[in-house]
Every structure is written in C-alpha cells, then in structure tokens.
TrEMBL record:
InterPro entries, alphabetized: Homeodomain-like_sf, HTH_AraC
PROSITE patterns per the UniProt record, alphabetical: HTH_ARAC_FAMILY_2
Residue stretches making up the HTH araC/xylS-type domain: 220-317
Molecular function (Gene Ontology), one example: DNA-binding transcription factor activity
Protein name per UniProt: HTH araC/xylS-type domain-containing protein
Alphabetized UniProt keyword annotations: DNA-binding, Transcription, Transcription regulation
C-alpha cells in the first residue's frame, strides 16, 4: 500500500468515526406539508462540499429526504438503498455510485457479516447550482435530472452507475477524503474543484453506460452531439467530428430530421433556456453565456422569436 493509499484509509477511518456525530437532524418538511422527514445539511453551515463515510456490517437508516445533492459510493463491499420512487431496494455493489437529488427519498440498509464502507460527497443545493450547472448544462438529460427538484420538490429520481476500479474517480475520491479530514487552508476550494472533476468523469461514465445499453441510431447520435455541444457548435466542427463534408452533413440533417443545422441548434438552445428560466434564479446574462450567445440581447431576441414570449414572462410563470 502506497503512502497516499494509507493516508486515504486513515481518512476513511476518521470519517467513519465521525459519522454518528454528524448533525442527523431529521425534521418534518416545513414547506411541503408532508409527513416525510427531511435531513438538514450535515456539516458546518459555511461548508459547501463535505464528505462523510460509514464503515460497518449493519446500518438501518430511517427513510428520509435531504435538502442537498449527494453522491454515495460503495467504496468497499455491498449495501442496499431504499428508493422512494420504486418502493424497493436498489443493490449497490462495490464500485457503484448512487446520485441523489434534493428531497429524493433514500435510506441506506446493510446487515450481515461482511462489512461495507460507503463514502458520500454532499453538496449544498445553492452551491451546486452556482458551481456545477455550466458543465452539466451540456447534457439535456442530466440537466433535467439535476434541475427537476427546483420545480418538482419530490422528483424522487436517482442515477446509479458502475465505476470500474481503473476509473480516475477513485483516486480523486481518496484525495478528497484526505483533504477533507486534514481541513487545511483552501480545503473548500480544493474540494469544490475535485467535485467538479468527479462530476465530469461521472458524466462521461453515464454516457458510456447509455451507449452500451442501447446503440444509438445515426439520427440519435447527430442530435445528441448537437445537444451536448450547442454552446459552441458549428457545422464545420460537427462535420469534422463525424468525418463528413459540411455540405453533405447539412443535407443529411435535413434528410433525417427535416430541419436545418441552424434550426436544430436553435431547438437545443431554446429547450435548455426554458429549463434554466423555469428552474433556476440565473440571470439572462448567465443563461446567454451558458447557451453560447455572445450577449444577453441576442439571447433575448432568439427566445422571443422562438417562443413568442420573453424570458422574463417565462421566469415569472
């Protein structure tokens, strides 16, 4: 075992020791008027990213919801997560991760002789929207997943991924554990940067799993590429990626979708714009930047022409 691996194991042991002392403050939902218990932020209020860990052979959490985003990793061993949406237990084997939205129902369950280590990255909701929305906005499916709780308080969606041991995510997670336990100067800045890197790797892994499950058609591949790169895409760059001549690609898109490249690009941008306006407090200037517009005026005109209404009216609705 290397020095860094020993430091990570020591950090895991310390996080596990702290686990029972965290602010396990379950309260009835003060806003929704429902009976489910809500777990408040477990760390210090000034922390925007925190880590926690459980190690042992038995855990029977109360079913609850939480007011933050979280990514739980089956670091060693296997455990089960009780999911509200499917009303059953989801098995998390070693190497899996479970991504939960704010207010999604959840409970960790484990019993038996074999110990398990579960490591969680917790992110305050406001910090998530401020720090991590831009990279996630490239993917409309993931964007909808992370923004849905802003509109539907009890969305109850989750993402489960299997991460190979060769994934850089595991090294990054070990670095995060060591950094969090050490609590040195600039730790929060470092943790937030590492969280962003892990999220980007998770996005990549998510797409790889989706492609393995169902091989997309050519039309789906082209539309997905537009959606993923709509903030900076040109016909030339897309043609280069797929190995086509721009003129051929232009004609192919019309043949397959009955829309031009410019129309498809606008469709993608406007769908994302509507999600931002309906689910976030972002300004028109920030939304324009995320969508790839040079200024807010261009975004405003495009939105009004496309939807027949203004961004302000959509946000106020």
């Amino acid at each position: 075992m290397t020095k860094d691996e020993k430091a990570a194991e020591a950090a895991l042991a310390e996080l596990s020791r702290r686990f029972p002392t965290l602010r396990w403050d379950f309260r009835p939902d003060p806003v929704g008027g429902r009976t489910e218990l809500i777990s408040q932020w477990l760390g210090d209020p000034e922390e925007e990213v925190m880590l926690c860990a459980f190690t042992g052979d038995h855990i029977d959490e109360r079913f609850h919801r939480q007011d933050f985003f979280f990514i739980n990793f089956a670091y060693h061993g296997t455990y089960e997560a009780l999911s509200a949406r499917y009303s059953n237990r989801v098995t998390l084997e070693e190497g899996d991760c479970y991504i939960g939205q704010p207010y999604s129902g959840y409970a960790m369950k484990k019993s038996g002789p074999d110990p398990v280590s579960i490591v969680g990255i917790l992110i305050q909701k406001e910090a998530f929207l401020r720090e991590y929305l831009a990279p996630i906005s490239e993917d409309p499916v993931l964007l909808r997943f992370f923004l849905e709780p802003m509109k539907n308080r009890y969305a109850d969606e989750f993402i489960k991924l299997s991460l190979p041991r060769c994934s850089p995510i595991w090294n990054l997670l070990r670095i995060m554990m060591t950094e969090y336990v050490g609590g040195n100067l600039c730790s929060q800045k470092i943790l937030k940067s590492l969280t962003l890197t892990i999220l980007l790797y998770i996005i990549r892994s998510y797409h790889e799993e989706q492609e393995k499950a169902v091989k997309p058609t050519l039309t789906e591949s082209l539309l997905q590429y537009i959606a993923l790169h709509s903030d900076s895409l040109t016909l030339q760059s897309m043609a280069d990626h797929f190995g086509y001549h721009p003129v051929y690609l232009s004609r192919l898109l019309v043949k397959l979708t009955e829309k031009t490249f410019s129309e498809l690009l606008l469709d993608s941008r406007m769908r994302k714009a509507k999600l931002f306006l309906e689910n976030t407090p972002l300004s028109n200037e920030k939304i324009a930047e995320l969508l790839g517009y040079k200024n807010a005026s261009n975004f405003y005109r495009a939105y009004k022409s496309y939807y027949g209404t203004t961004p302000r009216v959509t946000k106020a609705a």
